[in-house]
Amino acid sequence: MMPIRWKPLLANAATTALLALMPIAPSHAETVDEAVGSLQRDWEVIRYQTPAAAREKRYEALAARAHKVSEEHAGRSEPLVWEGIVLSSLAGEKGGLGALGLAKQAKALYEAAIQIDGNALDGSAYNSLGVLYYKVPGWPIGFGDKAKARELLQKALAINPKGIDPNFFYGEYLLETRSPQEATPYLEAALRAPARPGRTVADSGRREEARELLEKANKGR
């Protein structure tokens, strides 16, 4: 009978125990494009496929995730844009004074994104910041500014002239500033905009919104 070698067995057991306590490294670290793509998909499900009563809580959870993505990819514009979009959407669900605080946070994120790379995501930071400027009340309540909104929305259009979002939001801006005749061609351009890869839900929802606004614009002419 061979003698039992206790030392190697004990050493192996200790090593196994140590390895069990060590954190397991992820097999794949998310790239910024993957992380932002995940935020986009979850946002569009909340925006277009989730009952209104459930949206606020889901946006809150998504905002926490978006902030983590921004921290993990510091120095990149895209996560900041999407964190801002989520916070802006959350503000829209909340309403009231609480919404203004969220809008201010989103504004700071869009401005930071522009400082890094305003052309990222086809100029979405300019577009989203412009939307805030025409939706938020003006002084003394908020920072809203229709002239600033026009400037930013036009800058987004210059970067992405055929895009669905810049055309839709400029059309909405013109409609809200009582220019329905001017709004019509931009809303029509939003309906003609090329499909965005991986954004089927968002494109479908935005086109439906564009059709509704176009009907409103035609009635107001």
TrEMBL record:
Entry keyword set: Signal
Parts of the chain that traverse the membrane: none
Domain of life from the UniProt record: Bacteria
Biased composition (Basic and acidic residues): 204-221
Gene3D superfamilies referenced in this protein's UniProt entry, alphabetically: Tetratricopeptide repeat domain
InterPro entries reported in the protein's UniProt record: TPR-like_helical_dom_sf
Residue ranges of the region described as Disordered: 197-221
Signal peptide (UniProt feature, chain positions): 1-29
Name listed for the protein in its UniProt record: Tetratricopeptide repeat protein
